[in-house]
Specification:
By secondary structure, this protein is mainly α. Helices cover 46% and strands 0% of the residues.
């Protein structure tokens, strides 16, 4: 387990009241609740390494005689005849 470092945080009264209630119900501490919430947040915020994504390898895999598919894809897929500038 990591060494815990002390820090100080400020919460609005209503938020602190809710945290105390949750801690009491869960027989936990506000510190544990906050650490778990921050751990979950940090897990979601890890930047994705796009080069490891299999979709990344699809870039440039296709070719077309039309050469403007990225601009006129609606026209080619749906027959949209609106002029695209």
């Amino acid at each position: 387990m990591s060494i815990l470092k002390r820090t100080q945080m400020y919460f609005p009264e209503e938020m602190l009241r809710e945290l105390r209630g949750i801690a009491k119900r869960e027989k936990s501490s506000i510190s544990d609740i906050v650490r778990n919430a921050v751990r979950e947040f940090l897990g979601k915020e890890k930047p994705k390494n796009w080069q490891d994504d299999p979709l990344w390898n699809m870039i440039g895999a296709g070719a077309s005689k039309d050469g403007d598919l990225s601009v006129r894809h609606d026209q080619y897929l749906y027959g949209d005849t609106r002029k695209i500038s």
